[in-house]
Amino acid sequence: MENKKYTITCPNCGASVSVERPAIINVQNNPEYKIQILSGELFRETCTQCGQGLQVVSRLTYHDIEKRLMIYFRPITSQEELKTFDYEAIRSAIEDNFSAPGYAMRVVTTVNELMEKIKIAEYGLNDGVIEIAKFVYFDIFSKQFEGVGVINIYYERRDDKDALIFFCNDGNTRSIFIDPKIYASIEKRFSEVVKAIYTSRVCMVGRDWALRMIKAYSKRDNQTITPDEKPEIKLLDSHPEA
After folding, report:
1. What's the predicted TM-score (pTM) here?
2. For residues 33 and 26, what is the distance between their CA atoms, to the nearest angstrom?
3. In what order do the strands lie in the sheet with 69-73?
4. How many CA atoms lie within 13 A of 53 on its CB side?
């Protein structure tokens, strides 16, 4: 495991705080780091001067040999970083240094995306199918909650079932369980592309990717994917995103 040292400035007292974080994680060798990522603990620090809680977000490569998953976390925390973010350069550099058939190789830019990719792999699901499913259930959500805006949607496991959690602009979070038949239908219809993203090619599989796939397939056929019954949308305890 490779560690890197960083110096961050406390926004409360201005003190410089030295922190050390792993740059490369192999979860077979260090399974505790998976737990720390999913709990958010890996991204938290405390100022040694005033006790202020600090967020530590740094570049990270996450490798799970068993799940055949490689995630390159390249955080974007400001508009300046967004302007200089060059996905193609990152993709090219990664593929020049690592290649393994049958791997899911992903680039993510937020802590929530990193957590979500790990959870999806943990339960043996395809992240491409999940991203397309978000559009299916967003349409259902919008019709039932007209006027409520959705900030983000993330996969979660609840009550031993696969669910999508909607973070809404009214301060509430709501969940919808994913119908296994809908998941299977998406997997079948989009089989070419959902299989293609499990190769040694690096991908950013998120909202934009799913939208491109849906548009491309809609030109080819008029098939729709909707649940036979209106799914229950459950209001959860409100909580902020990580």
Report:
1. 0.89
2. 9
3. 2-9, 16-26, 60-64, 69-73, 104-108, 202-203
4. 5
> In sequence order, what are the residues at sequence separation of 6 or more whose Cβ sits closer than 8 angstroms to the Cβ of residue 144?
230, 233
User: Is the pLDDT score of 241 beyond 60?
Assistant: no
Token pair in block for residue 29:
């060798």
> 161: which strand partners?
158
Query: What are φ and ψ of residue 153, in 5° steps?
Result: -130, 130
- Tokens describing residue 130: 């999940």
Q: What residue ranges do the domains of the chain occupy? A: 59-236
Question: What DSSP character marks residue 184?
Answer: H
| Residue labelled with tokens 């209106």 | 230
pLDDT digits (tens, 9 = 90+) for 194-213: 888 888 788 999 999 999 99
- Alpha helices, DSSP H, located in 145-225: 180-189, 191-196, 207-220
Confidence band, pLDDT 50/70/90 cuts, at residue 242: very low
Question: What single letter denotes the amino acid at residue 126?
Answer: N
Tokens 């960083």 correspond to 6
In eight-state DSSP terms, residue 42 is: G
Q: What amino acid is encoded at 181 in this protein?
A: K
Closest listed residue to residue 152, CA positions, set 173, 126, 122: 173
Whole-angstrom CA distances from 9 to 18, 46, 54, 100 are 9, 11, 9, 39
Helical segments of the chain, H only: 32-39, 79-84, 87-97, 111-122, 127-144, 180-189, 191-196, 207-220
**b or e along 99-114 (b: 16 or more beta carbons within 10 Å of the residue's beta carbon)?**
eeeebbbbbbbbbebb
Q: Give the pLDDT score at 238.
A: 53
